[in-house]
Amino acid sequence: MNRSIATLLFLSLGILFVCEGGNPCCSQPCQNRGVCTAIDGNSYECDCTRTGFYGHNCTQPEFFTWIKMSLKPTPNTVHYLLTHYKGLWNIINSISFLRGQYHEISYVTHLHV
After folding, report:
1. How far, in Å, CA of 81 to CA of 109, rounded?
2. What are residue 60's DSSP bridge partners?
């Protein structure tokens, strides 16, 4: 037990020292699951492979990612449709995996209200 705590402490201190040394990746500039690699002391590069995004900080959506983001309704829209249209609710409620998805969306929506 003491060995694992010591290892964790060592890793934590190592990360602190790396970030204090001016590593540009410490500010986590890469978005959307991009991987940051420090180049020299002041610059960095983001690897956006298989993220669906591109650009210096992985913030520009690729075409199909943009379409998916544009067509996906917000949780509030889904909640409104399912609570105001009984027929749609009956269809969703009869299919178990869709019912679970809806309940999750509904829960998240109510948390943000």
Report:
1. 13
2. 54
